[in-house]
Amino acid sequence: YVSAQAQVAHNSVSTSPNSNDVLMKENEQLRKELQVYIQKAARLQKLELEIQRISEAYETLMRGSCKREALEKTLRNKLEAEIKRMHDFNRDLRGIWSIYMLRPGSELLEQALASAQSRNRQLEEELHRKTAYMKKVERLQSALAQLQAACEKREVLELRLRTRLEQELKSLRAQQVRERSH
């Protein structure tokens, strides 16, 4: 359209200087409108890239969340099995204790008690570490949920902005068509 206008302007130079000025002004106005459209298209492209980046980040977060949940379940099952084993071990120690209380051999009893106490301390420390880890996993899941909510909010806002910009672009195109027809 612009090159056609330039041709018409070139051909009409011989006809009248006023029409040449009008054509040049119209051509300049069209160039400015084209620049506006180019800028808006660039903004739309940037928004699309940002939306794609956010979508990919969201998918990565979701995969990480699923992995964390599976790990948490596995750790919880191991922890429950270890606690059950500790209870069984303590029950067995009580049984041994009651047997040794009825017979002589306090050295064996003291060794068994010391061994049981040592093992019990190790298990309690392991339980403490695993509990701390579970709390950390829960905090990470909470942070992930907050991040996901923020991402969803941002996606909604970007969708609104994109819709508004597309409407503006349609309106400008319609305006340009109307101006061309006049």
Throw out a few tags for this protein.
182 residues, mainly alpha, 3 helices, rod-shaped
Blueprint of the fold:
Elements: H1 2-11, H2 17-102, H3 106-181
Helix pairs in contact: 1-2, 2-3
Give an overview in words.
The structure is a single chain. With 182 residues, the chain is mainly alpha-helical. It has three helices and no strands. It has helices spanning 2-11, 17-102, 106-181. Helix 2 (17-102) runs antiparallel to helix 3. The radius of gyration is 38 Å and the shape is rod-shaped. The model has no long low-confidence stretch (mean pLDDT 82).
Q: Mind telling me the C-alpha Rg?
A: 38 Å
Q: If helices are DSSP runs of H or I spanning 4 or more residues, what is the number of helices?
A: 3
Structural class: mainly alpha
Mean pLDDT over the full residue set: 82
Number of strands: 0
Low-confidence stretches: none
Distance between the termini: 15 Å
The biggest beta sheet is recorded as:
none
SSE series: HHH
General form: rod-shaped
The helical percent reads: over 70%
- Percent strand: under 5%
